[in-house]
Amino acid sequence: MFSLLVVISTAVVFFILSWGGISQSITWTAFSGKLLRTYGGSWYDSNLTVLDNKGEWTPPPDGFTSTIKAEKTNFKTDVPRASTHRPVAETPMPVLSIKAFKKLPKWDFEDKYNQDAPPREPTCAQSLRMSNDEKFKKAFLPNIRLFLHKDNINMSEWNRLSHFNNPFGFMGFKYDDVMDSVKFIPKPKEPLLRPGKDGCIRCAVVGTSGILYGSKLGKEIDAHDYVFRMNGAVIKGYEEDVGNRTSVYVHTAHSITSSAYVLKKFGYKSVPHDEGIKFVMIPEGMRDFQWLQGLLKGERVSEGPYKNRRPRTYYADQYNETRFYVLHQDFLRYVRNRFLLSRNVNASFWAIVRPTNGAFTLFLALHTCDIVDAYGFITDNHNKYSNYYYEKNAKTHIVFYANHDYILEKNMWKKLHDSKIIKLYFRPDPENKKP
Ligand SMILES: *[C@@H]1O[C@H](CO)[C@@H](O)[C@H](O)[C@H]1NC(C)=O
Ligand SMILES: *[C@@H]1O[C@H](CO)[C@@H](O)[C@H](O)[C@H]1NC(C)=O
Ligand SMILES: *[C@@H]1O[C@H](CO)[C@@H](O)[C@H](O)[C@H]1NC(C)=O
Ligand SMILES: *[C@@H]1O[C@H](CO)[C@@H](O)[C@H](O)[C@H]1NC(C)=O
Ligand SMILES: *[C@@H]1O[C@H](CO)[C@@H](O)[C@H](O)[C@H]1NC(C)=O
Q1: Which residue among 131, 165, 239, 309 has the highest number of C-beta atoms inside a 10 angstrom radius?
Q2: Coil, strand or helix: which one is 298?
Q3: Quick one: which H or E segment has residue 359?
């Protein structure tokens, strides 16, 4: 037997590199009661059993505070041994059950990530990579592996990643179910972005927040070398405020399929489809691997919630496998661990807690661009505006879904802005219009 039996105790400390130290003076809004709802549209009970389409959702009252129980998890498992002489793993480790853990388990290799050779020499003097912020420099891994493909996974990788819940790894998934898709993901032939003449890559990352409605930022956004968008990126009719270009579109199977019908009433017809656009997928769950298999093979989805759908029809004639990228579990986990680690990873619903798709997109830009301007991300006065820009001035507010920590993200964007690592668009409170 080549594996090593390790008993992980809660005493392992590995988040020392985390960048932030954000003080949490804000009341944590978390979720009590039996049902939890996620942005992905699913309902869960407190045992994380999916209960789709059940129950009425009522947001928790303002100021509701959760009690987060730190439960001790002692768990034995085979882990890949950190030795250069280890025999190559040949079989997948036994599937770990998410339900076996009462909170996020901690492994001593939690904070170890694959890194890749840098795609280019940094030549941009204004690059965020040149930041002098000591904490940021320590946390930031400029060459973190961004993309998963068929050539960068093998059995020991599978076993390592099987210790982390999705989307940070493959806990609870069967090897064949995932690998039947991953074996079709081609190795990207080119870097996501290329620098311009002065060696700098200037990016706009456009979130969907209501502060963009009436902002008239369209021209400024479009003037960047690259424009990133994600999720329900409604453009038609909002060009003056949000621009009309999209170079990189980040999505999940859920976001691309649900946008098609949820956003119809806002004029949304399809994903952005500029000539040569790059599509980036966040593989957040099994359904994304099922989607990927259909997409990459050009067939119908064979299993799961999207069974019989034809994924290629969702990309507005711009699907091309040379421009399709799948984010790597190490990248997603690194973003969570070092920048956006919510206290809710210690709550009973730990396994659904993750950064938003917008957050992963902004961090993807931080790792592929030199200069990042963020528009339409959550700021302190988000409640003064509608939830999404395409809702115009409707009185809608952000629903604080249980799976995301919006306050933590809001503080992180402000901190990155204050440290001059990104430029974040703030908007003053709307003036009270007198009749
Ligand atoms: C969760 O699981 C425990 C133990 O199996 C059970 O006693 C409890 O009733 C379950 N909770 C819910 C909400 O189903
Ligand atoms: C498996 O993949 C990892 C990550 O890409 C790599 O570091 C390792 O050398 C590979 N192992 C084998 C046996 O190929
Ligand atoms: C965006 O608008 C500009 C100016 O109206 C136009 O020239 C350009 O073709 C549009 N681009 C896209 C992708 O629609
Ligand atoms: C996909 O993109 C590649 C590289 O740009 C190009 O050579 C190829 O013709 C494209 N394929 C399709 C089906 O458009
Ligand atoms: C989770 O709980 C452990 C043990 O009490 C604590 O050390 C850790 O800081 C907590 N994690 C977060 C992100 O709050």
Answers
A1: 165
A2: coil
A3: helix 357-368
Sign of CA dihedral 168, 172, 177, 183: positive
- Considering the domain delimited by 128-424, tell me its CATH architecture: Alpha-Beta Complex (3.90)
Angstrom distance (rounded) from CA 330 to CA 283: 12
Q: Residues lining ligand 2, CB < 6 A?
A: 88, 114, 152, 154, 156-157
Structural domain boundaries in the chain: 2-87, 128-424
Question: How far apart are the CA of 244 and the centre of ligand 3, in A?
Answer: 6
Q: Quick one: which atom of ligand 3 is closest to the CA of 275?
A: 13
Residue 53 near residue 17 (C-beta atoms within 8 A): no
Task: Give the pLDDT band (50/70/90) at residue 89.
Answer: low
Q: Strand, helix or coil at 415?
A: helix
Mean pLDDT of 300-309: 95
The two beta strands, 75-79 and 4-8, are antiparallel
Query: Which tens digits make up the pLDDT trace of 339-368?
Result: 999 988 998 888 989 999 999 999 999 999
Query: Taking a C-beta distance cutoff of 8 angstroms, is the pair 355, 340 a contact?
Result: yes
Amino acid at 157: E
Q: How far apart are CA 251 and CA 300, in angstroms?
A: 19
Mean pLDDT of the chain: 81
